[in-house]
TrEMBL record:
GO terms for molecular function: hexosyltransferase activity. Residues 2-71 form the Glycosyl transferase family domain. It comes from the Bacteria. The keyword Transferase applies. PANTHER family: SULFOQUINOVOSYL TRANSFERASE SQD2 (PTHR45947:SF3). Keywords: Transferase. InterPro entries: Glyco_trans_1, Glycosyltransferase_grp1. Pfam families: Glycos_transf_1. This is Glycosyltransferase involved in cell wall biosynthesis.
Length: 108
């Protein structure tokens, strides 16, 4: 997976689908191994195959993980994500006490 925002993982979880993803980047913040999906070492095709095979072979963990899949993304709808991004921008652009906004912008 080379997706920087991790949208495919979020969409799968929001759909109640357990995720198999590399243990790197965004997935490590969203996938809770054994709870809502499985992580495999990055650049490890055998690890990826083993994780997929585990879920494909047994409906029980797939169903259990699917039930828990939505929880980590429940508050990640676009309005919430955009509000969080705007708050980060406000934090960066708000001058510390005693600074002028023009000075803060000039430093960046």
């Amino acid at each position: 997976m080379n997706e920087t925002f991790c949208q495919a993982v979020q969409e799968a979880l929001a759909s109640g689908v357990p995720v198999v993803a590399p243990a790197a980047g965004g997935p490590i913040d969203l996938v809770r191994p054994g709870l809502n999906g499985l992580l495999h070492p990055p650049d490890d095709p055998p690890g990826l195959r083993a994780a997929v095979a585990l879920l494909a072979a047994d409906a029980s963990p797939r169903a259990r993980m699917g039930l828990a899949a939505r929880e980590p993304v429940a508050g990640r709808a676009w309005p919430a994500v955009c509000a969080e991004l705007l708050a980060h921008y406000r934090d960066v652009l708000t001058p510390a006490s005693g600074e002028r906004a023009a000075d803060v912008i000039a430093e960046t």
